[in-house]
Design a protein that fits this description.
- The chain is an alpha+beta fold.
- It has a four-stranded antiparallel beta sheet with strand order 11-12-13-14. A three-stranded antiparallel beta sheet has the order 1-3-2, with helices on both faces.
- A hairpin with a 5-residue loop joins strand 2 and strand 3.
C-alpha cells in the first residue's frame, strides 16, 4: 500500500504564493525580467496590468514603468504575444519558443481555418490571395521595423479591403483584412506587439516581426511550460492546469507524467507539484499587503480560488465575464479592492474585515501611497470594469 499524499493546507498555499509571486517584503524582485520569470507570464490584455503588476513586486518600484518599457521595447527581454487561452501575455523572451509550440500552433491552425472560412462565406478572395497579402505585409513590416495596420496598408493596400462577418446574425459586422490577418499572424508567432501609439497605458500598438526562435517539439514544450508554471503556482489541481493552459485534459496529463509531477492532497482533492517540491514552506516572517491591478496573474492564476478569494467577494471584484478588477491583498488572500479617482487619489475598501483587521489598514494605506506616487499624473482605468472599482472611482 502506497504512502498517503502529503496534505498542503491553505496557509501553506498562501505562503508559497507570497514568496514565489514576489509579494512578501523579503521576496521582492530586482527587475521586470525577474518578475516575469517568477510568474511565467504577465497578463497583457490590459497594458497597464503589466506595469502595475511588475511595480507591485519590485524591491524598488520607483522606476518600474521606464524599466519595463525598456525591457519590452529596447532590450526585448520581455515580449508581448498571444499565449494560453488565445490571450495576450508578456513573457520572458526565452519562453517565446516554448509558448508558441505548446500553445500557439494548435490555436493558430484553427484561427487560420476560421479566417479563410469567414472570408469565403462573404465572397472574399481565397486562401492563395490571403497568403499573397500576408507575405507582402510581412515584407513591409520588415522594411519599416515597426508599424501600425494603417501604415502597413500604405505599402499593401489590400489590407484595407473589407468583408462581411456573420451576415444575418445578431453579431454581424464588417471586418478589415488587416485586423483579422494581423491578429492571426500574432497567434502564429510571426508578429508581436511593438511600442504603443500613446503612453504606457495605451491599448493601441504598433506591430513588429516576432523574434526568431527554434521550432520545438509540441509535447516537450508543453512539459516545459507546465513545469515552469507548477514551480511558480503549485500545488494546483488538474482543473487549474487545464484552465490556465487551455489544453485538452489528455495533454495536461501527458505533461504531468513526462515531468514526473508529484501528487499532494488539497482541500479540493488531488494537487500537483514539481518533483521534489513536496516539502513544507514556511510563511513570510512579516505580514504583507499588496495592491494588485486588474487581471493580475496572481488573482487570475487558478480556476479554483476559494483558498485565497472568498466566494462572497466575487460579485464586487469580478465583471460578468470573469475578469478580476484591482484587488487588495493581506497575507495571501484577497480582502478588498481599490481604484483611482479622477483626481489621482488611490482609494480602497476592505471587504473581508474578519481577516483584515486593524493591522492591515496601515499596511494597505502605505501601499496605496506608494502606488499613487508611482502613477503621479497618469490615470489608469481598467479595461474591464468591475462593480467595486466603478463605485470607488466615482
Amino acid at each position: 500500500m502506497g504512502q498517503p499524499h502529503r496534505y498542503v493546507d491553505v496557509a501553506e498555499r498562501r505562503a508559497r504564493l507570497a514568496l514565489r509571486h514576489r509579494l512578501a517584503a523579503g521576496a521582492r524582485a530586482a527587475g521586470p525580467e525577474e518578475v516575469a520569470t517568477s510568474l511565467v507570464a504577465l497578463h497583457g490584455t490590459d497594458p497597464a496590468t503589466v506595469y502595475l503588476g511588475v511595480a507591485a513586486r519590485l524591491a524598488d518600484p520607483v522606476e518600474a514603468v521606464p524599466r519595463t518599457e525598456r525591457a519590452l521595447y529596447e532590450d526585448r527581454t520581455l515580449v508581448r504575444m498571444h499565449g494560453m487561452r488565445h490571450t495576450v501575455f508578456v513573457f520572458p523572451a526565452e519562453l517565446t519558443a516554448v509558448v508558441h509550440a505548446s500553445t500557439g500552433i494548435a490555436v493558430a491552425a484553427r484561427a487560420r481555418s476560421q479566417l479563410i472560412k469567414d472570408m469565403a462565406a462573404a465572397g472574399a478572395p481565397d486562401a492563395a490571395w490571403l497568403k499573397e497579402v500576408e507575405e507582402s505585409a510581412l515584407a513591409a513590416l520588415a522594411r519599416r521595423g515597426q508599424a501600425t495596420a494603417a501604415e502597413l496598408a500604405e505599402d499593401e493596400p489590400r489590407l484595407r479591403e473589407q468583408f462581411a462577418y456573420a451576415p444575418g446574425k445578431s453579431y454581424e459586422g464588417v471586418h478589415t483584412v488587416s485586423s483579422r490577418l494581423l491578429r492571426l499572424l500574432g497567434v502564429e508567432g510571426k508578429v508581436v506587439r511593438g511600442r504603443p501609439l500613446g503612453s504606457w497605458t495605451s491599448t493601441q500598438f504598433r506591430w513588429a516581426l516576432a523574434p526568431a526562435h527554434p521550432e520545438l517539439d509540441v509535447a516537450d514544450a508543453q512539459t516545459d511550460l507546465l513545469r515552469r508554471w507548477l514551480a511558480a503556482c503549485g500545488p494546483a489541481t488538474e482543473a487549474d492546469l487545464k484552465w490556465w493552459t487551455g489544453w485538452r485534459v489528455t495533454e495536461v496529463r501527458r505533461a504531468l507524467a513526462a515531468m514526473g509531477a508529484q501528487e499532494v492532497s488539497l482541500d479540493e482533492g488531488t494537487g500537483y507539484v514539481v518533483a521534489g517540491d513536496t516539502g513544507p514552506v514556511a510563511a513570510p516572517r512579516e505580514p504583507w499587503a499588496a495592491l494588485l491591478p486588474a487581471l493580475d496573474p496572481t488573482a487570475m492564476g487558478w480556476q479554483q480560488r476559494d483558498w485565497y478569494l472568498a466566494p462572497e467577494l466575487r460579485p464586487a471584484l469580478f465583471d460578468r465575464s470573469g475578469n478580476v478588477g484591482p484587488t487588495v491583498w493581506w497575507n495571501g488572500r484577497v480582502v478588498g479592492g481599490w481604484a483611482q479617482r479622477p483626481d489621482g487619489e488611490i482609494t480602497w475598501r476592505l471587504l473581508d474585515l474578519e481577516n483584515a483587521g486593524r493591522e492591515a489598514e496601515p499596511a494597505v494605506t502605505e501601499q496605496a501611497r506608494l502606488l499613487q506616487d508611482l502613477l503621479g499624473p497618469t490615470r489608469v482605468t481598467p479595461r474591464f470594469r468591475t462593480p467595486l472599482e466603478k463605485e470607488l472611482a466615482a
